[in-house]
## 1
Amino acid sequence: MDMSIFLAKFWGWYLILFFVVLSFNPRRIKQIFKDLHDEKFLIVTSSIAVIVGLLNILIHNVWEFSWKLIPTLIGWFALFEGAALFTFPRQTVTRLNYINVKYVQVIYMLLFLVGIFLLNIAYNIVPY
């Protein structure tokens, strides 16, 4: 299987599941941000983000202007956010909290639409 298609399926399903879970249980996101103040949770979360970001980038670092850029950007975002949480935890949590409070509906709808787009690419539901 082509790595781009694999990552389109992976990130597409991940984003859709993330959207569904947060839609049916909006308290979960508040819990995540509350837990980011716990150092153990923060270290585990940032480590996972760095690992996922690095793996994504190492296997798929495609910089062409097509849908293949989306998994690459997700990987770089995960790597940078994980590194920022590790290096500057207070500032990063404050920034993420601010962004989440201000743009929560826009962010979640965008994640949903990107997930649908990636799944459409991966499964060729509506020809692209």
## 2
Amino acid sequence: MGNIVDPISSIQPEERAPLVTYEDVAGRLELALTRPNLNEEEVDAACRKALVYGLGAVVVRPSDVDMAARILGNSHVALASVAGFPHGSSNTGTKLYEGRDLLRRGVKEVNLVINYGKMLSRQFQHVETEILQMSESCQQSEAILKLVFESAYLAEDLKNILCKMGKRTDSHFIETDDAADLPQLKSICKDVLKLKVSGLSTLDKFQEAYTAGAERYGTTDPFAIANEWKQILAAREAAAKQAQLETPSSP
């Protein structure tokens, strides 16, 4: 009897364009400011720092949206916030009101936590209807919708079903907290849904997730990753200049 091949682990990562510029990394990083122990001064300072670093987005608590909107303004740093956080257990009406309120106050990206209890109960129509209604609100506001789940709560078949829901409802991203999910999610989402992984802490982990197909990366300390990338780019530039100096000029 031959060896059984895992269909997910056997998927080869796609060939992606190399990371070359500062923006290739910083522009894909999302600063997560959703911890309950952050005070307003810390959120304010972190949003201003995100502007300096040119991050892709800042994800704030709903109560911090107005302050963050004043700081980020019309910059290239997208303002994001959460609906149904942290476990997706609020009822549909509450969750939809929360999402629409965020959009009205200037949020450009809604991170919708899916209802784990309904998924585990296999009440898929309930979950998909909820996603669809939020997707319609986001489309009307020209905002991005990310479907958020924690990997430990959902089995592989439920993750696959969630990806298919995201595709049917014209969502934009599937977001997991485990980079090990990326090959599986990529195999279902194809090029229809983009992938985000949260909880990354190092540039190495960023690069691994990028190779696996992720497009956005959530972390509480994107600045460390951006600084490490700056150092690598500076070293590359210095090496290139040195090589140019050492290259004999043609007669």
